[in-house]
Amino acid sequence: MDNVIMIKLNSRADLKEFMDCVIKISGTARAVQGATNVDARSTLGIASIMENGAFELRFIDCSESEPEMFSKWKA
Known about the structure:
This protein is of the alpha+beta class. It has a single domain (3-73), classed as Histidine-containing Protein, Chain: A (2-Layer Sandwich). 25% of the residues lie in helices and 28% in strands. Helix 1 packs across helix 2 (43-50). It starts with a strand and ends in a 15-residue tail after the last strand.
């Protein structure tokens, strides 16, 4: 199943918690902001785009419940 949610990370603590969650998903996740598309499991990639505001988190082949782990950061 593909699912997309908008994410906004506001601090380094948010980034750490986000990364702890993203490594637990069973499928693949991509973070997309404009023309930038990074692996959501890349701490450096996420850190670079979070500075520019909200981004799309695209879940690929994940269970329907996994996106719920990220509701704390919905933009």
